[in-house]
User: Fold this.
Amino acid sequence: MVKCSFCGSNLEIGTGKMFAKNDSSVFYYCSNKCEKNHLKLKRTPRYIKWTQEFRKAKTTK
Assistant:
């Protein structure tokens, strides 16, 4: 299983998108929503309420 690079949800085999940059870093996305928020809008998952990283950061405060 692979996790979405933006929201942190689990991806099943054969679903989602894989984005490879020229510097050989690989990002996995579960939906277009995650892909656009990360690549086009350049948002940080820590500040987006529906991501698992936000929930984790909020509980540790």
Remarks:
- The domain at 2-59 is CATH 2.30.170.20 (Ribosomal Protein L24e; Chain: T;).
- The mean pLDDT is 94.
- Residues 37 and 53 are 14 Å apart (CA to CA).
- DSSP finds two helices and four strands in the chain.
